[in-house]
Design a protein that fits this description.
Layout lengths: L17 H11 L5 E2 L6 E5 L3 H4 L1 H13 L3 E6 L4 H5 L2 E4 L5 H14 L5 H7 L4 H7 L5 H8 L3 H13 L3 E5 L1 H4 L4 H14 L9 E2 L31 H5 L1
Parallel strand pairs: 2-3, 2-5, 3-4
Antiparallel strand pairs: 1-6
Helix pairs in contact: 1-11, 5-8, 5-9, 5-11, 8-9
Amino acid sequence: MHSLGSPSIYQSDGLGDLSKRLGMESIWGADIEIPDFAHAKHILVFGANPYETFHGFNRPIVQGRVGNRAKFTVFEVRTSFSSGLADEWVPVFPGTDGMVALAMAHVILAEGLADAEFVQQWTDTSLEELTKHLRLYTPEVAENASGVPAEAIRRIAVEFASAKSGAVFTYRGIGSHAGGTDAVRACMLLAVLTGNIEVKGGCCLPREMKWQDVEPIPPSPSSAGIAAGTMSRHLLPFLIK
């Protein structure tokens, strides 16, 4: 970057997913998750279109669906490329995914399908506290808010919790609404409740490397040694300057 005349990079693309990043960071300290789609038995997507906008996920999703017989369930307000190819597309009113996720968590607790050992060891709450907190978020309440039938909410919640290895993924479809940060937290609660964190087929913490200042600083661009016909069009403006 010093060779180009500035060590700074400005990127505005990340503004659209701030709600997701804040939600993720408040759950486990990192602002993103790495879903292990290839080894999941159930892939649960809220407000995202991975087939079209996350090309790096295409291969692992296909590996999970074909090689691992994973179910691919997509909650989406529209018929996207991903929801159109899903095993089950669940239309949902815009901005209500979080309510559906809380109702699914309610069902998982009520059916005794939560991973009590994981919650006790790795969280700052308990199944009792969660059960009390979620008592009002019934599938019927969620149906009234989201348009998703209560029976579908119950069935998908049981399917996901019973799969034992499940990956949850969210994106701007829920994060760009009012309350988007809490909606992301509600969706990821499903992975926490079922113990699908840092396990094969679940949601993994990212491994990050921090870029440090490069030493020594690369030299500034110079016209020395550039022969006719080999000049880079990218460096030309800097050479002229």
